TrEMBL record:
Organism listed in the record: Aeromonas enteropelogenes (Aeromonas trota)
NCBIfam families: SMC-Scp complex subunit ScpB (TIGR00281)
Basic and acidic residues bias spans: 191-200
Listed name of the protein: Segregation and condensation protein B
GO biological process: cell division; chromosome separation
InterPro entries: ScpB_csome_segregation, WH-like_DNA-bd_sf, WH_DNA-bd_sf
Disordered as annotated region, ranges: 175-200
Length: 200
């Protein structure tokens, strides 16, 4: 059964609003569009049109690692934050530096992070990032002690509005020299779990 393009577009719009999470094209085709003969390319075109429809609105259609979602524009973040009595958790500099190094040098061990930062990285810092869903263990480095290798997740990309790691901004200059040295001196680590789904 065929539907007019405008009807299909509004159906996709409704699905993205009620899903409560990003939906990729495959999920859309296998759910709300399952009864309609649409190609992946056609759904991409409808999403592009829908994104344009919202280009001048307070809400935007954004593609992230897990798919497409509606979200408030960043321009209004400060004003919109007043809607919630509980403030979003604020993370320490140590937590954010650790996350930064994992994102830019993954997969990486805790010892390698400590070598760059020059201070110990506590288990609490790593567990905070894991509990938040931004970091996961993807295996072990084949050296003495077989330390775990840390990498970011799709949830990390989604939270920071990224489709892939290639969209990461330039690294903090304070961390750049140490990181560059490590990249030059270090070899590519062996990942124990070859099937781990590290995002890229």
């Amino acid at each position: 059964m065929a539907l007019p393009a405008e009807r299909l577009k509004t159906l996709i719009e409704a699905a993205l609003f009620v899903a409560g999470r990003p939906l990729n094209i495959s999920e859309l085709k296998n759910s709300v569009l399952a009864d309609y003969p649409v190609t992946t390319r056609y759904v991409q075109l409808l999403l592009a049109e829908l994104k344009q429809d919202y280009s001048e609105r307070g809400v935007e259609l954004k593609e992230v690692a897990s798919g497409w979602r509606f979200q408030a524009r960043q321009d209004y973040a400060e004003e919109l934050s007043r809607l919630w009595s509980e403030r979003a958790p604020r993370y320490s500099r140590a937590v954010m530096e650790t996350l930064t190094l994992i994102a830019y040098r993954q997969p990486i061990t805790r010892a390698e992070i400590e070598a760059i930062r020059g201070v110990a990285v506590s288990s609490q810092i790593v567990n905070t990032l894991k509990d938040r869903g931004w970091v996961r263990s993807i295996g072990h480095k084949e050296v003495v002690g077989r330390p775990e290798l840390l990498a970011t997740t799709r949830a990390f990309l989604d939270y920071f509005n990224l489709q892939s790691l290639e969209q990461l901004p330039e690294l903090d200059p304070e961390l750049q020299p140490s990181l560059a040295t490590m990249v030059d001196e270090g070899s590519e680590p062996d990942v124990g779990d070859k099937n781990a789904d590290r995002v890229s």
